[in-house]
């Protein structure tokens, strides 16, 4: 199985917090990470026919299908992590429009609420292999 690639906003403090969290909890080493302005993101956008200028937060790509965005991407990450995290999949019972409305609300306010970095931080040494 190819690793799931999570493209994220490298300048967002909130996004970086969650990426560090995912690095720790990805015990089966199934996730890889790249920021949305990386060469990897550009190549993925070209091959999957995705307009990155319209995406403002996370994209999740299994390297075979079209990348997932918003709540669908979050739930793909949760299902990939497995274990106790799968309990959070109960929220998939809620309507997509509601889940995406909440997701977009946080995404639009994330810089105001959590702040923005000047540059994308480097990963910890033990997690460098997870970053493309």
List the helices and strands and how they pair.
Elements: E1 4-8, H1 13-25, E2 31-35, H2 39-48, E3 59-61, E4 68-69, H3 70-81, H4 96-114
Parallel strand pairs: 1-2
Antiparallel strand pairs: 1-3, 3-4
Helices and strands, in N-to-C order? EHEHEEHH
Distance between the termini: 17 Å
Strands in their spatial order, largest beta sheet: 2-1-3-4
Q: Total domains, how many?
A: 1
Largest sheet: 4 strands, mixed
Estimate the helix proportion, in percent: 40-55%
* Structural class label: alpha+beta
Low-confidence segments: none
Number of helices, where a helix is a run of at least 4 consecutive DSSP H or I residues: 4
Strand content: 5-15%
The total of beta strands comes to 4
Give Rg in angstroms.
14 Å
Average pLDDT over all residues? 91
The backbone outline, from C-alpha atoms, is globular
Question: Can you put this structure into words, describing what you see?
Answer:
The protein has 132 residues and is α+β, with helices and mostly antiparallel strands. It has one domain. Helix content is 41%, strand content 11%. It contains four helices and four strands. A four-stranded mixed β-sheet has the order 2-1-3-4, with helices on both faces. Strand 1, helix 1 and strand 2 (31-35) form a beta-alpha-beta unit.
Give the structure's gist in a few sentences.
With 132 residues, the protein is α+β, with helices and mostly antiparallel strands. It contains 4 helices and 4 strands. The model has no long low-confidence stretch (mean pLDDT 91).
